């Protein structure tokens, strides 16, 4: 698919940022995760109420683009750090230079891509796919966020965005997109939408989770990032889709005396974990790997700490409120789903209000580093690890800029550089009904070759389906 870049510009906030807010200091939790860029693409068909059959009105497309820019400018006045530049790995220069905004055109219709979407092509709908800085660790002077709007020959549209993980997690990213859409929808529909009732963003997480100025910054960053429970390496990506019926069957299978009400995320997470552990053992045997098969696997799940704090932080707190819960799972015998669910629940339960409170205040850093040390000791006892993150219930399929909801929401394939590609990773996303789950799985190609033909998995999942042909 050929995508032509039409223009590049910076969209600045509609009003200047106050002087006392010109430097945004990251919180302690912001230093926990790799400062890479988070991708997302939303795909919108041409709403036929605006055009006659087979006739695409260029004026409508131009109007929508202008609407997106105006709404983005208004939104950035509240989300001001996103309009700035990376100052260093500890702060953002909120200089109002704006979000990097690209207009592009695809010479094919949207349906042609969605009929059988190629993961390798998704990067064409994201800003500067050939610019490595958007795919790796940012450096001083880089944009905090960027957007690309790609129009298709049918009048459809893909809105792709990168936002630095330095400024927030998936919850924060979704709040920004919903707020942008709300501003656009008000202009398009000339009425208040439900999204317009969103609370304004709060950028003061560093007051609760401060960096400790008494601790050398470089030493702090090195200590934190050397203990991250994340594995990097060359990998491939496949999508595994679980529809509502399959999830109902999975939940029934995961239910037992110790698990009365497994969630859809728990059911999918544990099945994928079970199958990946089996595939990894098979791959290790076939390659004569020296990996100790008696060692357990570490299942590592990202947990949103906002709702686990006492009192909880509201969902409009920007920044990263993530910690990794780690469960060691033996692979000597094939584990039952309910056992895996129990182990994950026990690990997540440890991230309670007392844990969150221990990371706050002047003593937060020492407790933070101690927790990292314990975490590292846990996953270094494992033969390998699988890292999960769930974007379910983030509401991406409700994001309406004024011409309807998206037919698909996607991330993208792994970076080409093994140094920045997270290996053995799973990202869970809603399907467009909100009842299914689409799992984006990133594995070594040899392990993936085994997993994608695992009949135990394929009883419940479809591999790389069309988003517009599958009832989900």
UniProtKB/TrEMBL annotation:
Q: Name one GO molecular function term.
A: acyltransferase activity
Q: Keyword annotations for this protein?
A: Acyltransferase, Transferase
Q: Which domain of life is it from?
A: Eukaryota
> Which InterPro entries does the record match to this protein?
CAT-like_dom_sf
Q: Please tell me whether the keyword Flavoprotein is annotated for this protein.
A: no
> Could you confirm whether the keyword Transferase appears in this record?
yes
- What family does the entry list? Belongs to the plant acyltransferase family.
Q: Could you tell me which PANTHER family the record lists for this protein?
A: F21J9.9, STEMMADENINE O-ACETYLTRANSFERASE-LIKE
Its name, as the record gives it, is Transferase
**Which species is this UniProt entry from?**
Citrus x changshan-huyou
